[in-house]
Amino acid sequence: MNLKNYPVAFMSMILLGMLTVLGGCATTGMERSTATVNSIDDVDAEIRKMITNVDVTAASLDSLTKSESAGLKRSFDSYSDNLAKLDAQGKLVLKRVAEMRSNSKEYFAEWEKQGDTYTNPKIRQLSEERRTKLAEIYTQVPIAGAGIEESYQSYLTNLKEIHRYLSNDLTSNGVSAIAPVTQTTFRDLERLKESLKPLIRALDDIKAELYSAKN
Q1: Dihedral (C-alpha) 38, 44, 50, 52: value to the nearest 10 degrees?
Q2: CA distance 141 to 198
Q3: Residue 155 pLDDT
């Protein structure tokens, strides 16, 4: 039988902890597997929320730059609120990426240790094939995430400095004076979004491998 045609349920059993191996370690294996899989979903959900926060914050800054004097305070308050949400969400995304890296490293290291304990050669081969394939896909995450922190922190720093500047000079002239800087943030926004795309693709590849049934 071609190993690639094993039922998806059986392949999932191999992925989710090798429950019949090393009795006392089975729960630990399941916990590691669950933490690894959950971290994928967490990173995916949080990074998509971050993209929404980025767009909303950029829109509120654009609205602020176009506000009449009477509406400056309201627009500034909206920008302040959205910037704070973006700051918090960005920190969470970076934390999730780090957790995923840590969880997957431990998970695959333990999987490799347990691989040789199978007496059935077909199961042993399947375990090794799946571990190798998934480990290769998972390595895309730290690679793809490498450029995110730098582009995000640079973008966020500029947004915060614009905020601090306008908090001291929330006038039409103040907004006009800082306009060249605000324009650069809109260009930086596109660079930030581009840096997020490889990570999103990497997460999509992992989810496709884990969740998609194959004929």
Answers
A1: -130
A2: 8
A3: 93
82: its two tokens: 């959205």
Long-range (24+ apart) CB contacts under 8 A made by 84-87 are 85/53, 85/56, 85/57, 86/50, 86/53, 86/54, 86/56, 86/57, 86/156, 86/159, 87/156, 87/160
Q: What is the pLDDT, as a whole number, of residue 56?
A: 96
Query: Residue 133's pLDDT is what?
Result: 81
Q: Which residues of the chain have pLDDT under 50?
A: 1-27, 215
pLDDT digits (tens, 9 = 90+) for 8-17: 443 343 344 4
Q: How far apart are the first and last CA of the chain?
A: 14
Q: Which one is the CATH code of 3-211: 1.20.1440, 1.20.120, 3.30.70, 3.30.1360?
A: 1.20.120
- For residue 8, what pLDDT is reported? 44
Q: What are the domain boundaries of the chain?
A: 3-211
Q: Give CA–CA dist 32/178, Å, rounded.
A: 50
pLDDT at 5: 45
DSSP alpha helix (H) spans, the chain: 8-15, 26-65, 72-115, 121-138, 140-145, 148-168, 172-177, 179-211
Helix/strand/coil for 16: coil
Closest CA to 55 of 170, 204, 176, 155: 155
Per-residue pLDDT of 31-48, as tens digits, reads 666 666 667 777 888 888
Side-chain half-sphere of 43: how many Cα atoms within 13 Å? Answer: 30
178: three-class secondary structure by DSSP: coil
